[in-house]
Amino acid sequence: MYADSRSAINTMGQARTICDRIDSPWLGIAVDVYHTWWDDRLEAEISLCGRSSRLFAFHVSDWMTPTCDLLEDRGLMGEGCIPIQKIREWMEEAGFRGFNEVEIFSRRHWDSDQAQFLAAIRTAYIEHV
Known about the structure:
Blueprint: H1 12-22, E1 29-32, H2 33-36, H3 42-51, E2 55-60, E3 62-63, E4 74-75, H4 84-93, E5 100-102, H5 107-110, H6 114-128
Parallel strand pairs: 1-2, 2-5
Antiparallel strand pairs: 3-4
Helix pairs in contact: 3-4
């Protein structure tokens, strides 16, 4: 989504290639479903990254359709169209054992009651991740 103006690395394949060329055990990939869900090679790339121990993080949120803002209109898991549970399965099958990080950048949610927002995050996580 930022390929036009803010990004030089747009696919997991590109990120994996860079990691492999640098070849450091300290370099890996944060798989953020918000930025990768559309990639038709995502499952294969997650598997390849798992084999080379490059899966460092897993970020979850959802893509709202239509979206009002590319950065700050992320949905709670289950509000949008990302197959989060399927992608999590791919991550786990590839050997990822780290935390699932909830990353909801959303003015709509930030402007709401934060105790209710936290409760909604918990429910969405349990039901959709």
